[in-house]
Amino acid sequence: MQFAIYLTSKLLSSKGDGFSGPVVRVAVASVAVGLAVMIIAVAIVTGFQKQVREKVIGFGAHIRVTAFDNNDSYELSPIQVEPALVTKLKNLDGVRNVSVFATKAGIIQAGEAFEGVVFKGVDKTYDWDFFKDRMQEGKALAFSDSNSASNVIISRSIATKLGLKLHDPLRMFFIVPDEPQPRGRRFLITGIYETGLGEMDDLYVIGNISHLRKINNWNDVQAGGIEVLVKDFKKLDVVNDAVYNVIGYELNTRSIKELYPQIFEWLDLQDMNVLVILILMIIVSAMAMISILLILILEKSVMIGLLKAMGSGDAVIRQVFLMHGAYILGKGLLIGNILGIGLCLLQQYTGLIKLPQESYFVSRVPINLELAPLLVLNAGTILLCMLVLLLPSLLISRISPVKTLRYS
């Protein structure tokens, strides 16, 4: 083993002015570019999936508890939200937040303009983290006193369509059964948000649930449903089952995947794009490593013949060339990591590459750098490339010392 290490160090210390020199540099570049492309592809796709998923969850929560009926409209059947039920849900493992909500379709009037929207009512238990990061003007709601009860936030798209501004009054009309005229409510715009999800931004006005309770003649413990946020999205199905077992037979749960299946199926399709890129880049890197090892073996065939004539076995000589290949692979991986991670960090902190938000739901190329995918990509590249290096190394056993030394 020590002899193989010594011989490998001598080969690596040579200047490489022969034919193998440029080929080695090409092989290093191929591995580096391949790994960099894989890192960037995984970071972009997972970042895109994460941002779009967070935006959809921001409007609908991870899990919704509603009445067990076939009502799929925006005006849900009321349910009794007893404090004991809320406490049970909060105590479930994996639950981050529990809040009540209600929705009702309405019409905004602004001068001569009208716009159909959905008023989403929430209370002080609502988690505003999602909207705090997406407020363009003003701030998210805080129901701290009676004066704030009529505050609402609207989207930038609704404000633009109706010519509304921050701190403008907002007049909405709601249809109430058995009443000949729509019932009007006056609100104050204290925040304007923008998420990039046009379907949602064009729809929701968010305010205090107390208004919907008065319009619908509900009591203080009635609501359209319960929204549950989980700590880990990967455990969504497990927590959903746990919530379903707690709420009783009169209520039903639907996860965000069930509420918006088309969006999550589309996000899952992005994994196929990443898989194709990974396979292509691995093949490129593997072919580059096979080619360089074959060239090294053929170029050093005289040395191999001489080593065999001096008594060295095929296994020792094979170790020399495998370690040489491992050095080239390691150098390529180092450069590839620096290049891939560096470009990802540049985009993450500068947002250099922009995107049309109306088409991609994000305003710039999203990046999600995590340690686990980086380790898997590096380990997978090392494993597969070292396995394919075994194939050309088998050529060493077919080199005859008599023939190589005769024609040298």
Structural summary, described in words:
This protein is α+β, with helices and mostly antiparallel strands and 408 residues long. The chain has two domains: 2-54 and 264-406, no CATH class; 69-248, no CATH class. Helices cover 53% and strands 19% of the residues. It contains 15 helices and twelve strands. It has helices at 2-13, 20-60, 83-90, 129-132, 156-162, 198-201, 209-216, 236-247, 256-259, 261-299, 301-309, 314-350, 357-360, 371-393, 401-406, and strands spanning 63-67, 79-80, 95-110, 113-122, 135-138, 151-155, 169-174, 183-193, 204-208, 222-223, 225-230, 251-255. Strands 1, 3, 4, 5, 6, 7, 8, 9, 11 and 12 form a ten-stranded mixed sheet that branches. It has a two-stranded antiparallel ribbon with strand order 2-10. Helix 1 (2-13) packs across helix 12, helix 10 (261-299) packs antiparallel against helix 12 and helix 12 runs antiparallel to helix 14 (371-393). The mean pLDDT is 86.
